[in-house]
Amino acid sequence: MARLIAFNKPFDVLSQFTDKGTEGTTRQTLSNFINVPKVYPAGRLDRDSEGLLLLTDDGKLQARISNPRHKMEKTYLAQVEGDLTEEALAQLKRGVELKDGMTRPARAKRVSEPDWLWPRTPPVRYRKSVPDSWLELTISEGRNRQVRRMTAAVGFPTLRLIRLSIGPWHLNDLATGAWRDEDPKAAPFTR
Fold this sequence. Notes:
Layout: E1 4-9, E2 40-41, E3 50-56, H1 59-66, E4 74-81, H2 86-94, E5 97-98, E6 101-102, E7 107-111, E8 132-139, H3 146-153, E9 158-166, E10 169-170, E11 179-182
Parallel strand pairs: 3-9
Antiparallel strand pairs: 1-3, 1-11, 2-3, 4-8, 4-9, 5-6, 7-8, 9-10
């Protein structure tokens, strides 16, 4: 049976097991946290983003989770710079024009800063003169840095980004840097 792992990826960790960066630099990778043979990320999560990353040893399952053709929804919590407006939310819900084309409509809502959220290391820069807001955004695409580009396009750059869910799999109370096994049969598609 396929193995599926949910990992709460910390900030500044690469979504790969080895670092192919420049010589002399040492960056944290998945191997600093997960010692499970033959599992690979199903999709990616940028180094400066946090939250749910799925890993599996099943190539077909990996492709179904990560391929945008399947339109698997991903939900993010974003801390954005500025006082988020209803117009910006409406734009995100309609779709946003990016350099690589129009995004699909998203589900977007303003939320309060969660009380369960772990501190980020290093912390997000704080500026007294500029407020920030929190946004929950659900998309069904996987373009490069899409959420950050979408929030910037509507005038609210992302300061912190946390993926909460991928399809039926949720971060829930998984601590940052921790992982757990998940049921691969929860996938919303047949194998």
